[in-house]
């Protein structure tokens, strides 16, 4: 039950971070950029939520699997939803699952598809289980 309370706190913190982003946007009247400390706070909270209570899994070669692997597994076969996956895989500078996951979140935010992406993944019961 302690984990349930902790997840509720994380969700509340994430909600507060989104509220701060909305407030910043309304005050400035311009799109949020990478210079925004509120965007950094939101990204940190979202990443923490995505990593919360993940079972430690590793690949055959021993590298740790992360939320990038979850996104990749969930969206690989969904036409239209896998554009971000293909984009991230095409960037040779990204070596770690964490880096790829961050790039994927950024791609999803830029293309205003983060909510749809998360919903698609949560609907994939086989992978989410």
UniProtKB/TrEMBL annotation:
Chain ranges of the RUN domain: 33-129
Annotated InterPro entries: Run_dom (IPR004012), Run_dom_sf (IPR037213)
Pfam family, one: RUN
Source organism superkingdom: Eukaryota
SUPFAM superfamilies with a match to the protein in the record: RUN domain-like
Protein name: RUN domain-containing protein
């Amino acid at each position: 039950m302690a984990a349930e309370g902790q997840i509720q706190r994380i969700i509340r913190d994430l909600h507060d971070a989104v509220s701060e982003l909305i407030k910043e946007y309304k005050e400035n009247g311009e799109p949020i950029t990478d210079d925004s400390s509120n965007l950094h706070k939101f990204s940190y909270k979202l990443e923490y939520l995505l990593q919360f209570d993940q079972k430690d899994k590793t690949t055959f070669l021993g590298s740790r699997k992360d939320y990038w692997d979850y996104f990749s597994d969930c969206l690989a076969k969904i036409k239209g939803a896998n554009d971000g996956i293909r984009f991230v895989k095409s960037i040779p500078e990204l070596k770690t699952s964490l880096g790829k996951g961050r790039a994927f979140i950024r791609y999803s935010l830029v293309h205003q598809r983060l909510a749809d992406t998360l919903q698609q993944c949560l609907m994939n019961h086989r992978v989410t289980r």
